[in-house]
Write a structure and sequence with these properties.
Blueprint lengths: L5 H12 L7 H10 L5 H17 L10 H8 L1 H6 L2 H16 L1 E4 L2 E4 L12 H10 L1 H7 L1 E2 L10 E2 L6 H11 L3
Antiparallel strand pairs: 1-2, 3-4
InterPro entries: DUF1985 (IPR015410)
Amino acid sequence: MYYLQISKRNELRTRLLDDRSDLKPPELERLFKDTLFVDDWDAVRIALLYFLVHGVLGMDPKVQIKKKFIDLVADLDVFNSYPWGILSYKETINSFHNAFQLRGRGRAVKNISQYYDLKGFPLVFQVWGFEAIPDFGNQFADRLETRCPRILGWHTPRYMKLTDMKIVKERKQIC
């Protein structure tokens, strides 16, 4: 259980967010970029919330940021001890499930579109694919010098499309 000091979370919401509970990722981005912070720790808190929303969770821009996340960032000790990896993993796996099937009238319907949005942190799976299937990595990315962590050892010069992966599959029979 994570306990927050009520004064800390209320103070942050009041001072920086005007007690708003309907904040969405694009509005957070504007706040992050356009605010001249008087207190450096407020800047750190908003930067952490920005990274959480846009990086770790990859939230949909139309969805409201959970009040819980705003409250957690108000207390840095609590925020830093929260299990973000588990939450990010769950969001990513749910996103993969939803990318390949659409919900329709109470049943799962296969997604036949060439486009889908992935939430969470799918970059990890992309880099895993580059590492595990060398032809895939050679086709879609440039290998940089080996770094630690490995995710920094790849550069993708362009966006990948589902049709690109089908071409590689037909040509190389790698999947």
